[in-house]
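Schema walk-through. Below, the input block comes first and the output block second. Nothing else is stored per chain. Lengths vary across the set, and this one has 286 residues.
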Amino acid sequence: MVLVTGYAGQLGWDVVHQLENRGVPCKGVDVNDFDLTDGEAVLAAVRECRPDVIVHCAAYTAVDRAEKEPEKCAAVNGVGTMNLVRAAQEVGAKFVYISTDYVFPGTGETPWRENDEYGPQNVYGLTKMQGEIAVRGALKRFFILRTSWVFGAHGNNFVRTMLRLGAEKSELRVVNDQIGSPTYTQDLARVICDLIPTERYGIYHVRNEGFISWAQFARMIMEARGLPCAIVPVTTEEYGSATKRPLNSRLSAEALAEAGIEPMPTVQDALTRYLNELDRLEPAIG
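--- output ---
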């Protein structure tokens, strides 16, 4: 039995459906099922389910809002993860923790490796680091999967925003100095499900292949949909943001290759399949 938190989110939804398609018994839960920050509620829910594996997709991910309510962000990403870790300890479950490139400083141009030192630059990154530390400090059978720039069919994301704005405006200003790898949740979910049966525990970087800027990704989206909206590249400073965001979100995926897991498809391939998925679910989009 696999317990998946954050079922209502982009990744949690895809993980549950990947598991179901593989015939793996699973249960998806979300905030309406129990409060992650309530240790007793978490323990009671896990005791009732008694999962063999916990996949922790739930998180506080509102990066800008986190700067204004750091206690709430820390309660979910730090304390909430610790509560789930303690429950995993009690029932002897494997643990999959979904983390982020934001745990790194975001400087330079070299892809971050799995064993590089932490250096979060904002509240969100700090609390996700706290979650990682909770997992690493208490469990032996864990997978920490760091990813970046996630997009999926069951939630809001950059691609959806670009499709909407691209149909409304003639041009859009998009940052061109933040570099990373947009990641399709279906591909990420596949890797999670591939790792779960193994004992290749540790930290992995999981993202689609290819490093691009947000502006380049925006152009890719417009071209894929034939939208005439022009993308105007700007620096992060020119764009203006109250929250410090990493310029270098490149993640090395060496550990995943060493574990013998099938490589992730390219960003272009992922975007094409994602747009096809949107067409099936929402024919009016684009």
